[in-house]
Design a protein that fits this description.
Helix content is about 65%, strand content about 5%. The longest helix has 27 residues. The strands form 2 sheets. The protein has a 5-stranded mixed sheet. By secondary structure, it is mostly helical. Strand 1 and strand 2 form a beta hairpin. The chain is built from 26 helices and 7 strands.
Length: about 625
């Protein structure tokens, strides 16, 4: 454990150990826990995929926000460039032979479209390329769609949950299934697993790598460090230097508090460093070579300036991430807080034990270090990003898995004595709060009111009370063994309620997909679409679903050619300002998001008389009639 083997020997040993361990682990899963494994797969797939993929509840919700359609569009354009490069070279990524010509053609195919992220034909250098590469592979396999754009996140979350299960079963058996189910069902993981974004691309490999490092810390077996470096490199390709910074800082704090500096030195493993650099450097070097402004844009503007300033208009108060964390842990928030407090108490006890001259008999270390490691891992990202001038909820996603693991471990340790009465009722109450809020969510989306009708308030209240009593009764009668099941039932029912029964309302109110479909149906011949005074969420969404950039009146001016205009409903002042002297007719009102679509005729289509030429006659839809997308 204290000596570093030669590089060649390490490589052989790692490969053999990984293969051997993987085989033993798979055999262990098959022989000892088939039911647990089936339950984990079934619940995880349902929570992560229901209402997301067409064959499982339908793709109910289109891309929302600005980031989802923008990232998906980047992946689409990169795939198009990659396909063109491969077609030009008459090659595939894997060479057909070892001839120099075949190798060069395959290299040209590999590099084509995979180095520089592209948005609307121009370099887009805000984020590294991991999400785009994974989305490209899913696009190639399933076609370009909103749901395939989300598969990188849902698949990443699935592997994270699976690794939590396997790690806990290997090192902390008993709470492994609960820890995995709690991880996949908490609001933060389940939500970001359904988003076409880079947040889960960072959180999943980062957390897997941290679990791998702790496995090395406990066992001293070098092959576990492979996880730290391999998945750390993947996280670096997902969001940049924040991944190694967080990981190394947490590890250094942990070992520093335990005064085990030699372990920090042994963490620096030459084969792992080589692996990390081989995975990370080629893309960073090549993208800089092709785009000389990359380092300035990415490292200075989108990392340092994003942290130090409010340049990107995401300012929030210092306590913002505390609120985000409490919401992200729902419905496990109360148990998460209790497990964290318990882990802090255990860590303090371990710290006191380490100060004593004697050690526990037969051990070089004092007690169990796992709670202390998880506490530091959970707290540090929250504390660090609380000082950021720009705050978004996904930044602290890596802090959630250590807390869910703590909950699973805590429940296993108190399994015999059971939950105290106050904690049982508090957890049941938290489940009731989640049910109450989400049952009312469709009413708020549909009618945009903070106070729903009395009928729906009574329905939500009755559902919340029934949930609270049902969860409390199940735990009181059957103990902790039934706690996860009792909590998962309302979570799954809510998922079906929101996406199975009210997915259309979500789509209408938050996605550009219904509007894009309505435009295609009402004006299929339209080629150019302009926007004015529209939220950027809708702008990027329309650009993805129509596969073309939007024209902005304010930035680009009013096009001379015929086009469609998407504008805020009843914005007469803007219409008079921009379209004076132009002929335009209303096509339809998109009432769900307060938008109206007009057809604006080309300047060349009318003369001094102001009459539209017969070849362009159109029957406009009554402007007050909402289109049913």
């Amino acid at each position: 454990m204290t000596e570093t083997p030669q590089f060649a020997e390490d490589g052989t040993r790692i490969a053999a150990a990984k293969s051997s361990f993987g085989s033993r682990l798979l055999e262990q899963v098959k022989q000892q826990s088939p039911l647990e494994f089936v339950v984990l797969i079934a619940v995880s797939c349902f929570i992560l995929l229901y209402g997301l993929v067409p064959i499982f509840g339908g793709d109910q919700l289109g891309l929302v926000g600005a980031d989802e359609p923008r990232y998906a569009q980047v992946a689409r354009e990169m795939l198009e460039a990659h396909s063109a490069a491969c077609h030009e070279a008459h090659a595939k990524v894997f060479p057909s032979s070892l001839k120099v010509e075949s190798l060069e053609a395959s290299l040209h195919c590999l590099e084509g479209g995979t180095v520089t992220p592209i948005l609307y034909g121009k370099p887009w250098l805000e984020k590294p390329a991991l999400y785009y590469w994974r989305a490209m592979s899913f696009f190639k396999e399933f076609g370009v769609s909103d749901w395939s754009a989300r598969l990188p996140s849902s698949s990443g979350a699935f592997f994270l949950v699976l690794l939590v299960f396997l790690h806990m079963r290997r090192f902390r058996p008993g709470g492994h299934l609960d820890a995995a189910l709690i991880t996949v069902s908490c609001l933060g993981i389940a939500s970001f697993a359904r988003g076409a974004s880079t947040d889960m691309q960072l959180a999943a490999p980062f957390c897997i790598g941290m679990l791998g490092w702790y496995a090395w810390y406990e066992t001293g077996r070098k092959f576990w460090l492979f996880d730290l470096y391999f998945f750390g490199a993947a996280a670096t390709l997902a969001k940049g230097p924040v991944a190694p910074f967080l990981g190394l800082t947490i590890i250094a704090l942990f070992l520093g508090l335990r005064k085990e500096w030699s372990a920090l030195r042994r963490t620096i493993w030459i084969p792992g460093i080589v692996l990390y650099l081989v995975m990370v450097l080629p893309w960073y070097i090549e993208v800089q070579r092709r785009n000389p402004t990359f380092y300035r844009q990415f490292f200075l503007e989108h990392n340092l300036e994003r942290f130090a300033t409010n340049r990107y208009q995401h300012h929030q108060p210092f306590w913002y991430y505390l609120a985000v964390l409490l919401i992200a842990l729902m419905p496990w928030t109360v148990l998460g807080i209790r497990a964290l407090v318990d882990a802090v108490e255990v860590s303090i006890a371990e710290w006191k034990a380490r100060r004593r001259p004697q050690r526990y008999l037969g051990h070089g270390r004092a007690g169990d270090a796992f709670p202390e490691f998880l506490v530091l891992w959970a707290i540090f990202p929250v504390l660090f990003f609380s000082f950021s001038g720009s705050k978004l909820p996904g930044y602290i996603l890596p802090s959630i898995p250590p807390l869910t693991i703590l909950v699973g471990d805590y429940l296993n340790r108190i399994r015999r004595e059971g939950l105290p009465r106050w904690l049982r009722w508090s957890h049941a109450g938290m489940c009731a709060v989640l049910v109450f809020v989400l049952v009312l969510a469709p009413q708020h989306m549909q009618y945009e009111t903070l106070v729903p009708s009395m009928q729906w308030l009574l329905i939500a209240g009755a559902a919340a009370v029934a949930t609270m009593l049902g969860v409390e009764f199940a735990i009181r009668r059957r103990g902790i063994a039934l706690l996860a099941t009792a909590t998962l039932v309302p979570v799954i029912v809510l998922l079906v309620f929101l996406l199975g029964f009210h997915g259309r309302e979500l789509d209408l109110n938050y996605s550009a997909r219904p509007l894009a479909r309505a435009i295609e149906r009402v004006a299929p011949e339209a080629r150019l679409v302009a926007v004015e005074g529209v939220k950027r969420d809708m702008v990027y969404g329309l650009a993805f679903y129509r596969d073309q950039p939007m024209v902005h009146y304010e930035a680009n001016g009013v096009p001379d050619a015929e086009h469609l205009l998407v504008i805020r409903a009843n914005d007469t002042e803007a219409l008079n300002h921009w379209l004076t002297g132009r002929i335009y007719v209303p096509l339809f009102l998109y009432e769900s998001q307060g938008l109206e679509v007009y057809k604006v005729y080309a300047r060349t289509e009318f003369r001094e008389t102001g009459q539209v030429e017969p070849t362009d006659s159109v029957t406009p839809v009554t402007p007050t009639m909402p289109v049913n997308p």
